[in-house]
Design a protein that fits this description.
By secondary structure, the chain is α/β, with parallel strands linked by helices. The protein is about 45% helix and about 15% strand. Strands 2-1-3-4-5 form a 5-stranded parallel sheet, with helices on both faces. Helix 1 links the parallel strand 1 (about 5-10) and strand 2 (about 30-35). The longest helix has 16 residues, at about 115-130. The structure holds 5-O-phosphono-beta-D-ribofuranose (RP5). 5-O-phosphono-beta-D-ribofuranose binds near residues 13, 65 and 87.
Length: about 160
């Protein structure tokens, strides 16, 4: 059963959002990956969110670009933690997506990550860290992941 939903505004966001899916797969956390746009498919978003918690979703990761509303609108519909990943848009290199995602008015929080693939990867890791608070086996896998990543860093260039 998926514990993390990874939503993105367009199929064109998938390449940038894949690291979230990949890192969670490496940690054996099941994900539900969907294309849902806050402005192009608003009913799809409300329908999905209405059933998300009951379906077992505990964290939502939302990637969108441009005037990126997906994370904010998602957060408006749920009390589950929402992690926002700004996509690297072609016109403003993702600065538009970053500001749209991060500048939520007080009251409806979106935890916003860096632009693009590293932001997606960190959002995946952060989702795992949230779940690991109540899941000792996942915490162990997260510790192993950290150790493996540290071991990959050479002492000299
Ligand atoms: C947003 O508009 C999507 O998240 C995407 O990043 C951006 C452009 O979408 P496409 O025109 O490439 O489908 O809704």
């Amino acid at each position: 059963m998926a514990r993390v939903a990874i939503l993105m505004g367009s199929p064109n966001d998938y390449d940038e959002m894949k690291p979230a899916e990949e890192v969670l797969a490496r940690l054996s956390v099941e994900t539900d990956v969907r294309v849902i746009s806050a402005h192009r498919t608003p009913e799809r978003l409300t329908r999905f969110l209405a059933g998300a918690e009951e379906a077992g979703i505990e964290v939502l990761i939302c990637g969108a670009g441009g005037a990126a509303h997906l994370a904010g609108v998602t957060a408006a519909h749920t009390l589950l933690p929402v992690l926002g990943v700004p996509m690297q848009s072609s016109s403003l290199s993702g600065l538009d997506s970053l500001l749209s995602t991060v500048q939520m008015p007080g009251g409806i929080p979106v935890a916003t990550f860096g632009i693009g693939r590293s932001g997606a990867k960190n959002a995946g890791l952060f989702a795992a860290a949230i779940l690991a608070r109540r899941d000792p086996t996942l915490l162990k896998r997260l510790e192993e992941y950290r150790a493996q990543e540290s071991a990959r860093v050479p002492e000299r260039p």
